[in-house]
Amino acid sequence: MKMSEGVEWALHCCLTLAWLGRDDAAVPTSRLAAAFELPPAYLNKCLQLLVKAGILASSAGVKGGFRLARAPQQITLLEVVTAIEGPEPAFRCTEIRQGGAGATAAPGEFARPCGIAAAMHRAEAAWRRELAAQTVADLLRAAPPTASERLRCWQLAQAR
Amino acid sequence: MKMSEGVEWALHCCLTLAWLGRDDAAVPTSRLAAAFELPPAYLNKCLQLLVKAGILASSAGVKGGFRLARAPQQITLLEVVTAIEGPEPAFRCTEIRQGGAGATAAPGEFARPCGIAAAMHRAEAAWRRELAAQTVADLLRAAPPTASERLRCWQLAQAR
DNA sequence: GCGATGCTACTCGGATAAAAACTGTCCGAGTGGCATCGG
DNA sequence: CCGATGCCACTCGGACAGTTTTTATCCGAGTAGCATCGC
Questions:
Q1: What's the pLDDT at A86?
Q2: B34 interaction partners in chain A (CB closer than 8 Å)
Q3: Distance CA B36, CA B70 (A)
Q4: Residue A105 needs a FRET pair 20 to 30 A away by CA distance; which of A79, A98, B21, B146 works?
Q5: A102 vs B contacts (CB less than 8 Å)
Q6: Considering the entire predicted model, what is its pTM?
Q7: Are strands A56-59 and A65-68 parallel, antiparallel or unpaired?
């Protein structure tokens, strides 16, 4: 069970864009990728997913790029993770209890959900609850940018 | 982020072995695979992982197979999941904050952990806590076996 | 001088290949049970 | 009849391919800005 690296990239990009402020000009993928030493084309794909989720807004043209679509306190970590990973839960019950010996079950015997699946989904719900409780604004407050992170923001703001 | 199917298989096998009782004879992979309609060789691989984790005990020979190594109330769901998926967390911080502009950082600037990684790990800790709070015995209690599940156990107990 | 217009460079966006992880399979080492043989 | 012994079938266990998901890349459509041209 490995989470996509795109989640880390997306969160760092959101945090950086929040530092820059929503009012500044848009930041293109190429600049963000250079600031973090990431593959530009693939990072672009991740940012597109964030646009689809309504977290970022994109603008085309020569001075286009991405910016935050909402205020940082209205972007939860869960939204970012879901945008990249998709909405499906990590644990998917394939109902193996209905295979083999279960094939002879009376109709309606498996009406109530599988207890194992219920337990796993409960755990995932706790995970989601924790992610939904934190916003990008919380990250801003908890960790003020270090010197080199301020440098990164300055580089992104320069040379438009 | 997709969890391995082996987790579901392992949990169902543990639950079934718990129904049978630790004192009965061992159940070989071939019989378990037939009872759930699963690929026998791959299921065997998963059961081996459970043996390595000390959850199951294996015995060789003509009447060999697998059985629970401990009492059901001493097997948490977290142990089973960790045995199959491995101990590494789903979210792995690759420290991209140190790339690019971060390369010019003063030594010790990144001593404190990344706030994003901390938040993600906090969420995963909640997930683990929920899994560690439930044991196989709890599954036994919560969901008594249905008719076809009892049939499955009977088939496993027969024809030794 | 001012506005309309065409062009150009740059951006996003989706379609297209490599890499990795997961899934599935095979065969060999080892062991316990059983039949056989000897006492 | 009882015990020792050799054999054999069956098991686990780890090494070996196939398939799906993830990662990475490329190229085209579209657009905003800018220079140019005409009035």
A1: 95
A2: 100
A3: 23
A4: B21
A5: 148-149, 152
A6: 0.91
A7: antiparallel
